[in-house]
């Protein structure tokens, strides 16, 4: 069951962080660009080498990576080959892999999306889905959650500044995000795992802590994927409500905050080793911030004594 495996990886690594592999060109160190720009498919190779460097640096330290497919799609076939190669490599390294694809469509089209991303060429352990079109648009993904032990994270409260334009509109005396939450919680009810979380998770952003608190109460069996930390302004104190009293219930994403941390000190001119060290340092810093906030709020049960000592 996907959510059980994710939770066990989080406990094994003592770390509720998912690193976003979003290879925006401005984030790529010059040394990688220089070395691979003469290849036949330079952007594909540059993205792949960039991701490999990140995975080699943090693969032992974090439970999961999330790939935002848009950054690969914009480079066409080359980009998608790098996407595919990165998924396989991350899996080989024992990481849980989330494809951030935000799909959802009429049933027959959703079947094709689910097939491509949960069992076909771009198979991941879990993907993000857009529930705007209702249950039948998600059904093909749900079936693969059951038959292939996959997971999904449905958009419920997103991190962007305009997310309230639709998600906070009130219908039947409550905001749309709460209507979405009730449905998402229900869609997962027949896939509950041993930690009490279903295969159907929700995207609940770090940038809206008040809503996250409401949503944790509304969705006791729904695991949260939390974007918006760091680069979008989300802080450690903003994510604590997304976790349950054991310190489970959420995994927090950071992409630019980790991949681009090196630029604050050295600009693009770093060695590969310096880049990898900066990825490790940024990940460890974020982990410390998160675990400290969880500890201060007595939501620390699942993390080991050794981690307690470090904080
Ligand atoms: O509400 C959402 C849903 C998804 N995202 C994605 O998460 C990462 C965030 O990247 P940062 O660089 O850490 O800001 C990115 O892939 C988004 O597409 C989100 O930000 N908000």
TrEMBL record:
Species: Irregularibacter muris
Family: Belongs to the OMP decarboxylase family. Type 2 subfamily.
Coiled-coil zones: none
Tagged with keyword Transport: no
GO biological process: 'de novo' pyrimidine nucleobase biosynthetic process; 'de novo' UMP biosynthetic process
Pathway: Pyrimidine metabolism; UMP biosynthesis via de novo pathway; UMP from orotate: step 2/2
Reaction it catalyzes: orotidine 5'-phosphate + H(+) = UMP + CO2
Active site: 102 (proton donor)
Keyword Lyase: yes
Xref: PANTHER family: OROTIDINE 5'-PHOSPHATE DECARBOXYLASE (PTHR43375:SF1)
Residue ranges of every copy of the Orotidine 5'-phosphate decarboxylase domain listed in the record: 16-270
Keywords, ordered alphabetically: Decarboxylase, Lyase, Pyrimidine biosynthesis
Enzyme Commission number(s): 4.1.1.23
SMART domains on file: OMPdecase
This protein's name: Orotidine 5'-phosphate decarboxylase
Record GO terms (molecular function): orotidine-5'-phosphate decarboxylase activity
């Amino acid at each position: 069951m996907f959510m059980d495996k994710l939770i066990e990886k989080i406990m094994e690594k003592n770390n509720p962080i998912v690193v976003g592999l979003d290879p925006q060109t401005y984030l790529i160190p010059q040394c990688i660009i220089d070395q691979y720009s003469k290849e036949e498919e330079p952007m594909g190779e540059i993205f792949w080498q960039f991701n490999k460097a990140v995975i080699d640096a943090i693969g032992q330290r974090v439970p999961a990576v999330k790939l935002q497919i848009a950054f690969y799609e914009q480079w066409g076939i080359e980009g998608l080959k790098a996407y595919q190669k990165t998924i396989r490599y991350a899996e080989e390294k024992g990481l849980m892999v989330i494809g951030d694809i935000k799909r959802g469509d009429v049933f027959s089209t959703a079947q094709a999306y689910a097939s491509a991303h949960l069992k076909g060429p771009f198979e991941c352990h879990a993907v993000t889905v857009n529930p705007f079109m209702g249950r039948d648009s998600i059904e093909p993904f749900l079936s693969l959650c059951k038959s292939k032990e996959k997971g999904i994270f449905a958009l419920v409260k997103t991190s962007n500044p305009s997310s309230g334009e639709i998600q906070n509109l009130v219908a039947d005396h409550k905001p749309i995000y709460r209507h979405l939450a009730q449905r998402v919680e229900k869609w997962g009810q027949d896939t509950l795992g041993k930690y009490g979380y279903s295969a159907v998770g929700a995207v609940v952003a770090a940038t809206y802590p008040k809503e996250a608190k409401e949503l944790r109460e509304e969705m006791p069996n729904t695991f949260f994927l939390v974007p918006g930390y760091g680069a979008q302004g989300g802080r450690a104190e903003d994510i604590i409500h997304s976790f349950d009293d054991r310190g489970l219930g959420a995994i927090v994403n950071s992409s630019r905050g980790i991949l681009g941390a090196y630029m604050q000190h050295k600009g693009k001119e770093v060695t590969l080793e310096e880049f990898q060290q900066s990825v490790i340092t940024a990940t460890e810093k974020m982990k410390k911030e998160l675990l400290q906030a969880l500890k201060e709020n007595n939501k620390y049960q699942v993390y080991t004594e050794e981690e307690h000592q470090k904080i």
